[in-house]
Every structure is written in C-alpha cells, then in structure tokens.
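Reader question, answered in our methods column.
A reader sent in the components of a multi-part assembly and asked whether the whole thing could be modeled at once rather than chain by chain. We filled in our standard form and ran it. Here is what they sent:
COMPLEX SIZE: two components
ENTRIES:
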Amino acid sequence: MNPGPKVITYFLGNKYMPITDTLIAAWLSVILLIVFSCLLTRKLSIIPDRLQNAVELLLTSIENLIEPMLPGMGREILPFIGTIFLFVGVGNLIGLVPGLSNSTGDINTTVGLALVVFITSQYHGIKVNGIKNYLKGFIEPVFIMLPMNIIGELAKPISHSFRLFGNIIGGGIIITLIYQFAPWIIPVPLHLWFDLFVGVIQALIFGMISISYISVARSE
Amino acid sequence: MDVTLINAIIKGAAYLGAGIGMIAGLGPGIGQGYAAGKAVEAVGRQPEARGDITTTMLLGQAVSESTGIYSLVIAIVLIFVV
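And here is the structure of the entire assembly that came back:
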C-alpha cells in the first residue's frame, strides 16, 4: 500500500516520463476550468444572472483578500492569485469523484506551484527595489547573516509546498486505512472533513501565503 | 549476520523512527489550541466581528500546523521508502 501517485502509462513509451493518475487529475481540472469559463463568458451582461453573480462574488472576495496586503495592485495580481486558488481548489475537490485522486497529492504539483510563486516574488522584489537594493537586502543587518538570509529565502517555497502536500496526503492515508476496516458508512463524514473542509481551507491558505510572500518581497 | 537479518534490522529501525518522530504532533496541538482560545476571547469581547476573527484564526492555525506536517512527511518517507 503505497500512498502517492500511481504510474499509469509512459509518455510515448519513454521510460523516464511516466504519466501518473495525479497528472491526469491535474489535466482534468485544467480542462474543467477552461470549459467552464468559456461557457460562462459567452453571454456577459451588465445585469448578471445567478451563475455570473456567483462567479463575480467569488472573484470579488479574492480581490478583497488581496487589497489589505497589496494596496492598489489588486487588479494586476488577481489573475495570478485567482488561478492559483482555483487550480488548487478544484484539484483538491476532484478527489471526491470515485476513481480520481487529488491532483495536489503529488509533490511535483505543489513544488511546481511553489516555485512559480517564488520566481514571481523575486521578480517583483527586483522590479520594485532595483537589483542593487535587492542584493544588498541579503547582507542586512550584518555581513555574517548572508547564509541565514539565503536559507531563509529558500525555506519559503519548501514550507509552502510541503504544507499543502502533507495535508492532502495525510487525509488520503487515513481514508485508505478506514476503507480497509469499515468501508460502508463510516468513510462518509471522513470524506466530508478531509476532502471538502481541509481541501478548501488549504487552497485558501496557499493563496494567502503566496500573496504575503509577494507583498513581503515588494516591501523591503 | 546474513543479509535478511540486516534488512530486517534496518526496516525495524525505520518504523521505530517513524513512530518516535510523530511525537512532534504535540506542538501544533498546543499552538492551535492557544490560537483558538485567544479567538474565543476576542469574540466574547466583540461578538459582531465573528466572521473576521474566525477567518484569521483558521489562517493562523493552518500556518502553525506546518511543523507537524513536516514530521508527518518524514514519517511517511521512513515507513514507505526505507
């Protein structure tokens, strides 16, 4: 019993590029999001109907999360943060369908997302402060602190990715164990807690931590 | 000492290490309970800010759970990979 991604096939028969079930779930969530947004934006109107109202409410609430930490830049950062939040949210919820696994239950997905956020925050830091101040920020306050600052910067994507990965995999292991003992009624509240509640909360946390990393990199 | 005995000792030590490593589940329990206590106190002081306080409490609790998750990942690696 091995938790984690299970290899289904190989890409073009090449033995070093496996296609796992978490990768298929990630593709499925991307296709779902694209199809949903294409269907939704076909008839935009000034007076929205119910579905457009719900999506506008979601996007406005994400923008209200961004505003306190990055004042004035809400509209620019909203596509990036909204994509991260929706991708992680749909990826966590798609595990409820029987036969599919969570797309974030794979260390590759979460490290990929955390690296994208890391590179974006460094880019914002260089763009706002200039490259001289950015490099000088590593030597503050004393010159001896250079390795500590570098390790502190590198620890951010590690903790960012492992938080999401560990929460989702931990839920998956407990549910797999309970399925072997009592597969009939008892897994239902466990799925409710682990997949719905923890999945949505961890998607929110992932988004908010990435907003705070960008705002910290811009401010110093 | 043949090979199967050495492999059995390595596996047994890995399982033991995984179990001892999960003592780190003590930290997030105390920290998150403390945050929840402070949040309850704040709601008691100003009951109309309950939504904001709940959101901030959940955010702080999820960040303080990180070190418990690190030890869980180490224990999973010890059980299933070694």
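What stands out: Chain A has a mean pLDDT of 86. Residues 146-181 of chain A form the longest helix (36 residues).
Send us your own complexes using the same form.
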